[in-house]
Amino acid sequence: MKITIVGRKLNVYDDTRELIEKKLTKLDKYFKAAGDPEATVTLSRKRNVSSLEVTINAGGTLFRSEVDADDFRIALDQTVDHIEGQIRKNKTKLAKRLRENIMDMSIIPDPVEDISEEEPIIRVKQFEFKPMTAEEAIMQMNLLGHSFYVYNDITTGDTCVVYARKDGAYGLIEPMK
Asked: pTM of this prediction?
């Protein structure tokens, strides 16, 4: 696993780097089929609270966790446990979906609210689109903890959006042909 460690407004010492690498390399056993995963670890400290954020990109699937704690070691343990839980949950859901292969993709469009032009853009994110199925996009959305996910459909090549509905179901937005 390729690990990048970033310290925001603090120096990351060698012993902390070694500990992070040791803990994260234990997750390699889950990523044998995904090639060479990349992990980005960001450490920061504000008002005596240590924040540790870990993002792992394994074969186009993202696993992310952010933990605030009194100490980086505690935050690292909690983050690794959280990501390990995400990996297990992802594998279980994938296996279940492959076995059952039931997914109702019926869509009732929700009304779109008018967005005021006065609202500033707070954050811009760029990421690489990976062709995938709607089921894979839903799993990715759930792993990231987001309410929607934009992806390229593997069969049509169209840019689509899956989203979590208030009733617990999922919706799919596809472009009109």
From this structure: 0.57
